[in-house]
Amino acid sequence: MAIHPHDPCAFPVDALRAQFPALRRAGKFVFFDNAAGAQIPQRVLDAVNLHLLEHNVQRGGRYRQSIAVEQTIARARERVAALVNAQRSEEVAFGMNATSFIRQVSLAIGQMLGGREEIIVTDLDHEANVATWLALERMGAVIRWWHAREDGRLYTDDLQPLLGARTRLVACTLASNAIGSIVDVRSVSALTHAAGGELFVDAVHYGPHGPIDVQALGCDYLVCSGYKIFSPHMGFLWGRHAALRALPTFREQFIPDEPPGKLEAGTFIYENVAGMAAAVDYLASVGRRIGGSDGDVDPETLRRDCREAMLGIQAYERTLSAALLERLKPLGARIYGIADPGRVHDRVPTVCFTLPGRSPAQIVAAAAQADIGIRDGHMYAPRLMQRLGLAADTGAVRVSLAHYNTHAEIDRLAQVLERLCAR
Ligand SMILES: Cc1ncc(COP(=O)(O)O)c(C=O)c1O
């Protein structure tokens, strides 16, 4: 029977949790630090193991195991292309992580500044999408800052005056890994292109929380990290084919100057790419379950199924965000970013806060004692912490949820915080 993707009450959280062996093995432990790495479903583990057991060889050989590696990579490209709605799978490149891809593109852009030397970065972003662009100052780039406002959001009204005939590129996130705010990337893209610049989107944190459609977003480059989207550690870059073709990248003499190969110097971790393909299959299976389709993954409907899954996940996660915000309010929590439970559509379920009279470290230690994993610190966004008036060394507390989390788990955390505040 079809579950309406916008009916969060019908979200099959128990059935999905059962597919994550780590949740079972961890017993009562609550995984609320998903922004630092999500758990992986059994089918992802199986795909990684199968690769290592049967195909752990180099690609490019004429024997069947090597041919299988080539097929695994090709299938993974198709899967990821469907996940982000790429026009063609060659627009997807695999590598170690998101940061190294951002750096790779920034190094290339640094060689293509021409008369457009201005790069716009934000203080909402993870440092990976800031420092990599700041490094271009050595190559003649001029950095302009698109600042988040007091409410922890980026407004395109503030971007507009920064754009002009010298804008080479805007680098911004789709969602903040520290405070969860979503950025209106479609508008950013329209404004950036109207000024003749390009847009680099960091979708690492948004990836597990909603549908990504690179064509609808209208960006030029987008990066994601496997470990946030239910896969092992790896990164992938999507780029508009013409944009990737134009990038001067480092490559060995025998690699053609064509995407994706020109972005994949050296050997990446094939078993983890196999895992990433299986993570997309997992999401597609979630979409099929929600949509009431029979059978497992169907390559023909992969894009639709992934989108359906992410819409269902998004709707369910909004209920988690609202519940968490509601429970924090009576404790006098200062919430950074969107605090209104009525505006959860503008955020992902990543909630950053402080409590009066308790340090972030004390709060996180109390949660750890109760077998709940949350995190304190600057969340790799020290500039944002400063912008929000927080000390970068102590930072704040972050609770980062995923679709396998439950309302009961939020109740458990709230009870721990209530007890701590009552002491
Ligand atoms: C928004 C964002 N961008 C970039 C990164 C860096 O990703 P990676 O560790 O894959 O380089 C992270 C990691 O947490 C992140 O949350």
Describe this structure in words.
The protein is 40% helix and 13% strand. It has two domains: 138 residues, Alpha-Beta Complex (Aspartate Aminotransferase, domain 1); 230 residues, Type I PLP-dependent aspartate aminotransferase-like (Major domain) (Aspartate Aminotransferase, domain 2, 3-Layer(aba) Sandwich), CATH 3.40.640. The longest helix is centred in the last third of the chain and has 27 residues. The radius of gyration is 21 Å and the shape is globular. By secondary structure, it is α/β, with parallel strands linked by helices.
Summarize the structure.
With 423 residues, the protein is of the alpha/beta class.
Describe the structure using short key phrases:
single chain, 423 residues, alpha/beta, Aspartate Aminotransferase, domain 1, Aspartate Aminotransferase, domain 2, seven-stranded mixed β-sheet, 15 helices, 13 strands, 40% helix, globular, binds pyridoxal-5'-phosphate
